[in-house]
Amino acid sequence: MQYPLPIARLIDNYMKLPGIGEKTATRLAFYTMDMPEDDVEDFSKSLIQVKENLHSCSICGNITESDPCEICRDANRDRSTIMVVEQPKDVMAFEEMGEYNGLYHVLHGVLSPMDGVGPEEINIKSLITRLQKQDEVKEVILALNSSPEGEATAMYLAKLIKPAGLKVTRLAAGLAVGSDIEYANSITLKRAVQGRTDL
Fold first, then answer.
1. Which of 25, 33, 132, 149 could lock onto 110 through a cystine, CB 3.0 to 4.6 A?
2. In 10 A of CB 174, how many CB atoms?
3. Rounded to 5 degrees, what are φ and ψ at 178?
4. In this protein, which residues make up the domain named Toprim?
């Protein structure tokens, strides 16, 4: 038996979300159908508002309702440091941490030649232009994931940025507490050694 068309469409739409398979999408569709109408309206409005009201900051590429974004406008931020991240959600994670008070630059991805993602497809050109215009920047922190693509992107960016005389750093990363060295991958071990501190 096939589902009625409205449910089938809703299932198909839920399946467009990352990590949502057919079973989960079906569960969500039926849950949505059982929700109060006001909640469904709020849900649909929030989806539309995200698409209509959010855009990328013209300076850093973070998501924002106003341009430039709140972080770029904040005169109390440390303008000598720019942290380069992959996605807007990474900015949110660092902001929640509350330890970093510099600026950001969001790439909206990483280099991945296998997927057809080169330097032109992510927000690299605007980073280089920004670094050329903003004399107060002294350090660029590459806060990219430890995936092969993240590592390749970090190396590529370092080669572009270092000739300008800026300090380029990478987040220290290493072994998780309680993990066995023999099961750690080479990138984790390399970063653990490079990020070591004196005792």
1. 149
2. 16
3. 90, 0
4. 80-176
- Number of structural domains found in the chain: 2
Q: Is residue 187 domain-resident? A: yes
pLDDT of residue 30: 95
CATH number of the domain that residue 26 is part of: 1.10.8.420
Is the same domain home to 43 and 77? no
Structure tokens belonging to residue 182: 């023999």
Strand, coil or helix: what is 17?
Answer: coil
Cα distances (Å, whole numbers) of residue 144 to 47, 86, 141: 28, 6, 9
pTM of the model: 0.79
**pLDDT tens per residue across span 100-111:** 899 999 999 999
Give me the residues paired with residue 103 across strands. Answer: 82
pLDDT, the chain, mean: 88
